[in-house]
């Protein structure tokens, strides 16, 4: 697939996320009718891996409503969120203002982040939980991340495990209690086209741009993209917990997240890399 075709599909995704934004703002899933609790979206091991953030420059790529970005600011970081959806960035600015959080939000395609941020470098670049699947080219992404990091800076990816994506991050129509592989685990099969009027939240139907495109990325593809860009992988975790109950038989953990009683399978991973 050519870069021009990639750009066309990403523009479709941008329109889709613009249309999703009012749906997500109205959803119970995000709970933005109350004071936002950004910590709820983080596993305890993420903070352990990220370390002290006070006084650090932290960039959150593909931040959507910026709910997680607020958590970095509350931990003392100079926080910046970047997203390609104009509607999402506008909403994120409003949410941060109401929360009293000092966060800068920038609207740009992730591949244009170096130019959009005028060459600014960061101590930490963070991304994940449903972000990488919207990127067609991970090699280009990894090179972009390298250009955003200071020497010694760190990338942290907290992302849904390819196994979860293969099982399906949300229930299929008529799905029973069985765990069934429904999608590819490995990448390379091209984009998956979806035309959906409802998203992963409980909000109302999406109006307008309902088409979106997602790409499958296996763990090997992620690691090889990063090492190919000159980043060193320092840590890789696999977790059996999710921040929401994907299957009805999931049980609440001590962290307030959810896991299957059995079998123990990876549903989320955390990857720390350094420039």
Automatic annotation (TrEMBL):
UniProt xrefs under CDD domains = AdoMet_MTases
**Superkingdom of this entry's organism?**
Bacteria
- Record-given protein name: Methyltransferase
**Taxon lineage:** Bacteria, Bacillati, Actinomycetota, Actinomycetes, Kitasatosporales
Listed Gene3D superfamilies: Vaccinia Virus protein VP39 (3.40.50.150)
Question: Single Gene Ontology BP term?
Answer: methylation
Tell me the GO molecular function terms.
Answer: methyltransferase activity
Cited SUPFAM superfamilies: S-adenosyl-L-methionine-dependent methyltransferases
